[in-house]
Amino acid sequence: MVIIGITCKSDTKSFYLPRPYVMAVTVAGGTPLVLPHVDDTCIDELSNLLDGLLLAGGGDIHPMFYGCTDSGKLKRVDPIRDRFELTLVKRFAQTGKPILGICRGMQVLNVAFGGNLYQDVGELTDVNHWQKAPVHEPIHTITLKRGTLLHKIMGQTTLMVNSFHHQAVKTVADGFIVSALAEDGIIEAIEHPDYGFMLGVQFHPEYMYESEPFNKLFAAFVAACKR
Ligand code: MN
Q: Is 204 a catalytic residue?
């Protein structure tokens, strides 16, 4: 069994996670384990238990975690989730086991290791990064950097992706490299080349987990978790 921890959202009533994250991991051969952000004291044990960590999408990271104040463009924040995920990913990274961040999850990776974010990309770009089209419909192009882990997995240098983000990586954390850019220069993927598998994508491959080449991303992640 390959146990993949997946972080989740919460409101006052529920912890919850969109089904596609669970389906994508399951179809790729992993056993998903949803991680509610209720108790930081379990983080050491979780890091030992899990074979891989998937940081899921969600609301904005509170800017206090990257040394900024609210610019006025902030949307929904959940500092308890932020603290849990930032603590978990830093601890989990000490194990060397695979980490995949999706959307907010990529931003969590970047902030955890010292990078920061644009709090709103609306004024920076003419590309629509918050699509009204159905979730599984790609709307903008990204260019993948040759030789990166992401490029090796996807097997192509350009890709059409979906887009549901109003924030983006600004300064890339030390040790990370950019593995994909949108045509407007917005960072669409980062990875840590000295770590086995630590990859963040700004798009939502889970909504297309049955389609080429997005299925390859989950297959590669779960395969890396088996080792
Ligand atoms: Mn985008």
A: yes
Is the pTM for the entire model greater than 0.70? yes
Active-site annotation holder among 85, 192, 204, 225: 204
**CA 188 to ligand 1 center in whole angstroms:** 6
Q: What digits encode the pLDDT tens for the residues 56-106?
A: 999 999 999 999 999 999 999 999 999 999 999 999 999 999 999 999 999
Q: What is the CATH number of the domain that holds 148?
A: 3.40.50.880
For residue 55, the enclosing domain spans: 3-225
31, 43, 130, 140: which is closest to 94 by C-alpha? 43
Catalytic member of 103, 129, 151, 165: 103
Ion ligand 1: residues, CB < 5 A: 129, 163
Distance 161 CA to ligand 1 centre (A): 7
